[in-house]
Amino acid sequence: MRKTIIAISIVFMLIFAGCSNKGDDQEEATNVYPLTGKNTTEEIANRPVAVMVSNQTQARPQTGLSKADIVFEMLTEGNVTRFMAIYQSKQPEVVGPVRSAREYFFDLADDYDALYVSHGAANFVNDLIKEKEIDYIDGAKYDDDGHLFVREAFRKTPHNSYLQFDAVSEVAEEKGYEMEKEIAPLEFLGKDDEIDGEDANYVKIDYYGGTPIVEYKYDKEMKKYLRYGDEEQTIELESEEPIAVDNLFVVEADHEVIDDEQRRDIDTHSGGKGYLFQRGKVQEVDWENQDGRIVPVKDGEVVPFVEGQTWINFVQTEPEKDVKEQVQIENKE
Fold first, then answer.
1. 238 and 155 housed in the same domain
2. 284/223 same-domain check
3. Angle (deg, nearest 10), helices 123-131 and 103-111
4. Per residue, what are the HEC states of 22-72?
5. Domains contained in the chain, number
6. Cα–Cα distance, 208 to 320 (Å, whole number)
7. Structural domain boundaries enclosing 229
């Protein structure tokens, strides 16, 4: 009789353990980072933070780009591109070098409900930030304070201002900004969903006759695209970790030079043509700004992203060139 009672007890324990594990799995699946589609057991309440990061040669390699959920790459003056890295699912210790603000970048940050962080700006840009009531932190007001920003000695100004990420929420709350927000999620594929499109393991973006040179090479083992700038692989400064992208979204938009400094205005709202690269395949799509988010669209439906990091490269619309002529796509052996 004693053996029977013990056996029954063990069965009940196993059943209870199975139910308990199932509950844990369900709990884990409930929390999904809205900008990467990744599952987490953590509560997601932190507001995204968008940081301007230099891409001039003097600023490379950068710090913190590998931890961003989304990175926008867009032209500033002349042939120079700049990054805006949006962080929510991961918080790096340091991000930089941090550079100055642009209207089309802070408009996008605001659309993604992100706090905008830059270092300096032209007077008219500062006026626009205040006029549009953008939640922002200007590093010029905290320059080398040792708490929020540090000027590093191994690089020269203006390519040496580094954001100390742990201090962002504290400073933002001191300014009266809300740092807990519920963020609307992007659409993501399921783990077993197939990717449509043609094979494409190499991408080259031609801004102005090959200057700057931006390339992406697909890594089959990682199932990600590795980024290269001016024929050098884009890596983290300290760890040398490569920038590995799950979704590469290249879109065309109207660019207009607006002053003698060659600053631009870029249309991030009207939509246009684009290419979406995922897991070694490319789809020709349209892009739309839906509720402030830049999303791929095909046959009137949003094309979901793959779980993970997304880079969105804007290229200029030209009268005699469309996006097909500015993006070289190959499937190299």
1. no
2. yes
3. 20
4. HHHHHHHHHCECCCCCCECCCCCCECCEEEEECCCHHHCCCECHHHCCEEE
5. 2
6. 13
7. 198-330
Quote helix, strand, coil % in the chain, to nearest 5: 20, 35, 45
Looking at residue 302, which CATH number applies to its domain? 3.50.90.10
Segment-wise mean pLDDT, segments of 10 residues, the chain, 333 residues = 42 42 51 96 95 96 98 89 97 97 96 97 94 97 95 96 98 97 95 91 82 90 96 96 98 86 87 96 97 96 97 82 72 71
Are residues 231 and 113 part of one domain? no
Are both 136 and 66 inside the same structural domain? Answer: yes
Q: 300: number of CA atoms within 13 Å, CB side?
A: 0
Cut 0.85: pTM above it: yes
- Statement to judge: residues 170 and 234 lie in one domain: no
Q: Are residues 58 and 167 in the same domain?
A: yes
What CA–CA distance (Å, rounded) separates 84 from 71?
6
316 Cβ contact partners less than 8 Å away, ≥ 6 residues apart = 75, 207, 252, 253, 254, 255, 326
Residue 125 to residue 129: CA distance in whole angstroms: 6
Whole-angstrom Cα distance, residue 190 to residue 172? 35
Three-state DSSP class for 96? strand
**Same domain for 232 and 314?**
yes
